[in-house]
Each structure stands twice: as structure tokens, then as C-alpha cells.
DNA sequence: AGCTAACGTTCGCTAAAAAAGAACAATCAT
DNA sequence: ATGATTGTTCTTTTTTAGCGAACGTTAGCT
């Protein structure tokens, strides 16, 4: 014997308002029908959901429990209808990618490349903070989030982080600074531009400095890779960053890679929600990206 | 025009199996009825949920989205029915309290005291790690969690932390150690037992040490208050802990309070889920506890 | 206290929907 | 080709939801 979700829905509405008559009006059904349905639900569940106090309905202990579930259930239902109502995904396939704003643009482009020449799909790209993007992912407003850190999921947030790439990190500076000794010595006495204290690259870099008993002069802490690229190009300071970010400048010769930092990597993750039915397009994209980028 | 949850339910079942006929059999309805209902749902939502490929049904892009929501919805529905089926809360009121295992037993007892002499309610008390307890709270298997740290809630985890008490923290040691100078000086050259590095008490204590340019000798890091009590009693080391934990020993004179640490507190929180309809019992308990403990 | 308006419940009856069943079309395996 | 299998589309039957009037309470008013 299955739960009748229409009964539950009506119970939900009555519990919200606390009045049977008023709820019947808003639902455009009679009081009697509503009363009967709630009675049926109570019989189905085996215990009263309301305590009848005079001419008032108060939630019972069991009613409060049932209400919490009903609330969760129908809020999601309304979210679903709203989603389909507000435009509909029409025919063309849609893939919506969220990227942490500080992420390398080159990496983003590389990830999206397989999608760019496809006429039959619509691509949405949103930038923002990780928290905001994960919220959108949970609300099904994004299909995948690109980030430079992994996120652990749990029962209620079924996130899955998949590492796509691992870029070495180098000391990089303007070519006009002239030749430079390799890492431990080269940076002594020079200003450094490094990633912010929350990033994994910074952690690894700090550890490396400790090992070499080195306390470098930090000129600036920069989260945004694009900004760091500009600073590396236009100042006389050295930057700690993945060479791939300034690939163009390295080729052109305006910037020089003064050597990779051992054990320091920037990692890229694709974060998705565990779904029972994955979009074949997304699945293919993630597999493809792993192959391309992990080489 | 509202969403028909029975249609959605049938869609959910069909999508899970991928076969219409088989699903119709398990649902004990005819294929035709099932087919018709899914058609109606598609019309209601304004786009096809299945792609008809030959004699097979495959989820469309929109179908995958709808399925994710339906899955969340009906999983909760099944949880609800299971909850009512497995025994029912019957008549007596039930309150289920989760307490972080490392929390002071005295505090737990103080919190539960108003409930202990009530014959008309059933009390459940579970100990465990914070993560585990919060999971149970989300699943409605607990009504309140007692912890020594607050938890921030978000849209999906509607947790609410309420501070119940704030206990001063002292340097405490065996009386036989003899008199001791107050904090900054007294601890010099002595071993200390302190709370683990994750706790707020430890953080506050470390800050205090920095201010006084003090680097004390850490003998042990202990999370469990009951264990710390034993160590304080049975070793020659000083412990950083709230006096209330060893109230009995202080009265008996076996332990001595060598002075409160300024600005260091252990805080106790009651964590509940934001519910539209709170249990009056729980509400009363929390108000009562605040008054009693915050004095 | 006695009246009245508001509220929830119960009981037949009717309208709407869900489900069954038969006929049909498409696909796959042999 | 052909029969078995699967999904769709009809029409008919069965079940469920809903209506409205009568009824029983309760709270508020005079």
C-alpha cells in the first residue's frame, strides 16, 4: 500500500496555514473533501497528524515529522516545475559550466575546446566563487564546476571531484631580468608574487621554502591567474605560477621560465553531482579531458 | 495547473527500470495506463521526458533533470513511510539527543536534567563524532545535537547553532603539586595537557600564549574531557580545561584550580534543524537550558 | 446563560481520473 | 518472412476525488 502524494500535498498545505477552511478555498476544493483526505492519510500512516483542539487543528508530534518531510518533498517539486516553466531547455542540448573565477583561462579554454565547434549544443559559462558555483551545481543550474581544489561530498551534497590535470609550477619572470640561478638560490633577495594563502600551490610552495630554510620576500599574494600573468610581465618581480598560464609570453620570449619547483603543482578538478543518469555528453567530455590533459 | 505527483512517481519508476512493460507489472497497472500517464506528464511539463528509440525508452536531457528531482522527492517519501511503518512513535513523546562524545558529561547531564524526572516521555541519547551526529540530525533521527563548536548552516543543511553556555577555562593540577604562581609564570617549565588542535579552546589558548611570548611544553593533546580529567588527577602535569569538568575533584580537594585563563572559554552549543513547526518540548528545553546555564 | 458565527466532520451523490482491454504499429531475433 | 516483444492509441469500466447539505463542537459576544 503506497503513500498517496496528493493526500500528503493537501496535508502540507493545511499544516502550513493551520486552517482547513482557508486552505480548501485556496486549493479550490471543498472543506469536506480536504477533511476526508487528511483522514485517509492519517489512516494510511497509522497515527493522527493533527491534534483536534476544539475547532482548531494543531500538528501532533508525528505531524511535525511528516510535515518536515512533506516540506522537503514539495519544495523540490515546485523547484522542478519552476525550472520547466521558465523557458524549457527546448531542443538543443545544453551544457552549463561553472569555473572558479581565478582559474587559468587557458585551462578553461582547453577544457571547453571539444564543445566549441559543435553547432548542435548551447554552452553556458559562468564564473564565480567556489561556494556560489557549488550552490548552483546542487540546484541543477550547472552541470559541472571547474576548480583548482577538490571538494569532498557527503550524503546530502553528492559531489564528486575528478582530477583533470596537474600542472607543474615554476618561477617565472621577465626575460629582461637576465639569467637566474635555479630555485633555491635564484630567488634570494628578490621580490616574489605568489598565490594566496588558501591555495594548495601556496601551501606546497611554503613547505618547499621551509625545507630550504628560505624566507622569501613576498611582494604580492594574488589569487587570479590572469592578474598574476600581467604582474609577472609588467614588474621586475618573480612569480610562482604554472608556465601554461603564460604560454604565449614564454613563446614570444618576453617572459622566461626559471625552472620548475619540485613537488609544487597546480591541480585542476571537475566537480559534478552524482546522478543516476549522467548526460552522455558530459561523461564523454570528462573522459576526453582526462586523456588530453593528464598526458 | 499543478504537478501531478502520481504521474511523476510513475515516471520515476519507469525511468529507473527503463522498461515500460516491466514497470507496469511491478506497479500492478496496465502498460496502457502507464503510457498514458507519462504522456500526460510530458504535456504538463511542456517537453518530452523520453526519447523513443525504436521500442526502447531513453531519458531525454529534460528527462534526466526531472529524474534527479523525482529521485530526491520519492526517496524522502519512502523514508517517511518507512519511519511511520517501523513502529510509529506511538503515544509517548520522544526526544532524541545526540552529544559529541568528547563533551563534558556534567554538561550533558545538566542539559538533560529537566527531562529525567518526566515519566511521559522517552529519552534517547546517542554519542558520536560531530559529522555523524549532524548526518543523523539531517535525517530526522535526532532532534538536537550538543557540541562544543557552532556549525554554520546553509540552504541545504538548515542547521541552527544556539550557544547554551560559556565555561571559563583554567589551569588545573593535582593539589599535591603545591602552590603555583598565576598563569603566565606558573606554567613555565611544566608539562601541559591541552585540548586537541581543532578545538576552539586550544586556539584561544595558543593565542594567549603568543601574547605572553610563551611556548609551553605540550605533554598531551586530548579531546575527550573525561580522559583529560583522569590525566589531570593521575599525573604530575597541568591541564587546560574548564573547572566544571572536575567539579567533584575540586570540592574533594584532590585537584586545584590554579586560575582562569583570560579570554579562553569552552562554549557549548545546541544544534537543531530549522523546522517550521518546532516541538514545543524541544523549544522549552532549549530556552530553559539557556537560562540555567548562561547565568 | 444563551445565541450566533466559525470550524471541522460525516454522509450520500456526482463528476473526474485512473486503469483495463482490445486493436494497432514498430522493432528485433530467428 | 514471421512471430514474439514493446510501446501507442483508442474505447469502456472501475476507482477515486470532489461537492453540498446536515450535523456536532467550540469560541466569542451580548
TrEMBL record, chains A, B:
<protein>
    <submittedName>
        <fullName>LysR family transcriptional activator of nhaA</fullName>
    </submittedName>
</protein>
<dbReference type="InterPro" id="IPR036388">
    <property type="entry name" value="WH-like_DNA-bd_sf"/>
</dbReference>
<dbReference type="Pfam" id="PF03466">
    <property type="entry name" value="LysR_substrate"/>
</dbReference>
<dbReference type="Pfam" id="PF00126">
    <property type="entry name" value="HTH_1"/>
</dbReference>
<feature type="domain" description="HTH lysR-type">
    <location>
        <begin position="1"/>
        <end position="60"/>
    </location>
</feature>
<comment type="similarity">
    <text>Belongs to the LysR transcriptional regulatory family.</text>
</comment>
<keyword id="KW-0805">Transcription regulation</keyword>
<dbReference type="GO" id="GO:0000976">
    <property type="term" value="F:transcription cis-regulatory region binding"/>
</dbReference>
<dbReference type="InterPro" id="IPR005119">
    <property type="entry name" value="LysR_subst-bd"/>
</dbReference>
<keyword id="KW-0804">Transcription</keyword>
<dbReference type="InterPro" id="IPR000847">
    <property type="entry name" value="LysR_HTH_N"/>
</dbReference>
<dbReference type="GO" id="GO:0003700">
    <property type="term" value="F:DNA-binding transcription factor activity"/>
</dbReference>
<dbReference type="InterPro" id="IPR036390">
    <property type="entry name" value="WH_DNA-bd_sf"/>
</dbReference>
<keyword id="KW-0238">DNA-binding</keyword>
Amino acid at each position: 500500500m503506497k503513500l498517496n502524494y496528493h493526500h500528503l500535498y493537501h496535508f502540507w498545505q493545511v499544516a502550513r496555514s493551520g486552517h482547513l477552511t482557508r486552505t480548501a478555498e485556496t486549493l479550490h476544493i471543498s472543506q469536506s473533501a480536504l477533511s476526508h483526505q487528511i483522514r485517509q492519510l492519517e489512516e494510511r500512516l497509522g497515527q493522527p497528524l493533527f491534534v483536534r483542539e476544539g475547532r482548531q487543528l494543531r500538528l501532533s508530534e508525528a505531524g511535525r515529522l511528516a510535515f518536515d518531510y512533506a516540506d522537503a518533498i514539495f519544495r523540490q517539486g515546485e523547484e522542478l516545475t519552476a525550472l520547466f516553466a521558465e523557458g524549457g531547455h527546448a531542443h538543443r542540448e545544453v551544457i552549463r559550466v561553472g569555473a572558479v573565477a581565478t582559474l587559468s583561462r587557458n585551462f578553461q579554454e582547453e577544457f571547453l575546446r571539444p564543445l566549441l565547434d559543435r553547432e548542435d549544443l548551447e554552452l553556458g559559462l559562468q564564473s564565480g566563487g567556489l561556494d556560489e558555483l557549488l550552490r548552483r551545481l546542487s540546484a541543477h543550474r550547472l552541470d559541472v564546476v571547474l576548480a583548482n581544489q577538490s571538494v569532498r561530498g557527503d550524503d546530502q551534497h553528492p559531489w564528486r571531484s575528478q582530477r583533470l590535470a596537474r600542472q607543474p609550477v615554476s618561477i617565472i619572470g621577465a626575460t629582461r631580468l637576465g639569467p637566474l640561478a635555479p630555485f633555491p638560490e635564484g630567488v634570494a633577495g628578490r621580490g616574489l608574487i605568489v598565490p594566496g594563502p588558501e591555495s594548495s600551490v601556496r601551501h606546497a610552495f611554503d613547505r618547499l621554502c621551509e625545507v630550504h630554510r628560505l624566507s622569501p620576500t613576498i611582494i604580492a599574494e594574488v589569487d587570479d591567474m590572469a592578474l598574476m600573468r600581467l604582474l609577472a610581465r609588467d614588474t621586475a618581480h618573480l612569480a610562482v605560477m604554472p608556465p601554461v598560464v603564460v604560454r604565449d609570453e614564454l613563446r614570444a620570449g618576453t617572459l622566461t621560465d626559471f625552472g620548475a619547483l619540485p613537488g609544487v603543482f597546480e591541480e585542476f578538478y571537475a566537480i559534478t553531482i552524482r546522478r543516476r543518469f549522467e548526460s552522455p555528453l558530459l561523461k564523454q567530455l570528462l573522459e576526453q579531458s582526462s586523456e588530453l590533459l593528464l598526458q
